[in-house]
Amino acid sequence: GAGVSQSPSNKVTEKGKDVELRCDPISGHTALYWYRQSLGQGLEFLIYFQGNSAPDKSGLPSDRFSAERTGGSVSTLTIQRTQQEDSAVYLCASSPRRWETQYFGPGTRLLVL
Amino acid sequence: AQSVSQHNHHVILSEAASLELGCNYSYGGTVNLFWYVQYPGQHLQLLLKYFSGDPLVKGIKGFEAEFIKSKFSFNLRKPSVQWSDTAEYFCAVNDDSSNTGKLIFGQGTTLQVKP
User: Fold this and answer.
1) What does the H/E/C string look like for B14-51?
2) B63-109 pLDDT tens trace
3) Domain encompassing residue A25
4) Do A48 and B100 touch (CB under 8 A)?
5) What is the CATH number of domain B4-114?
6) Which residues in A lie closer than 8 A to residue B106 (C-beta atoms)?
């Protein structure tokens, strides 16, 4: 079946611009996670959704980062006023329920110039 | 906070050599443990997982891992590696304290297999 998809696959933006990253989870998966993969920091948790609510936003690095999920499906991660240190690969994962195996998307590679 | 430590950052092996990648975690309670693999140009894929039961778990492509609770370890093994095993390997644990199931990852180990 279809896996987790993310778009765009690559995004180059200028410092100070806003970007939106999209995640389409596996159909029926109620749990959705965003992670960030960067050199020197490894893979870091950003935010967790259960349905449309986000009970854990503890990994968001600053208030420039926000995310939403609609219809219990698609999620959007928004970064406002991007900075060079935001350059990373942003990964989305979904699972049928929390605590179960997470399936990862291909990621969005973000480069902030 | 929980943490995961992978001892080897970069491993180089010849084909047919045996592989063992170390992973230790800090949490003393109930844990779910995972090994993920990222082949060049591909996304993270699950190799194997441990939730409960037999501490020796088998995954895809001949990989296995052993959960040793007393050592807080979950080492990955393969008796004979192939060139196609060249990839980055990540150990991860569910962060039980947050009650969300989020994963805490180790720093990753890059495996290079020489043909």
Assistant:
1) ECCCCEEECEEECCCCCCCEEEEEECCCCCCEEEEEEC
2) 999 999 999 999 999 999 999 999 999 999 987 777 888 999 999 99
3) 5-112
4) yes
5) 2.60.40.10
6) 42
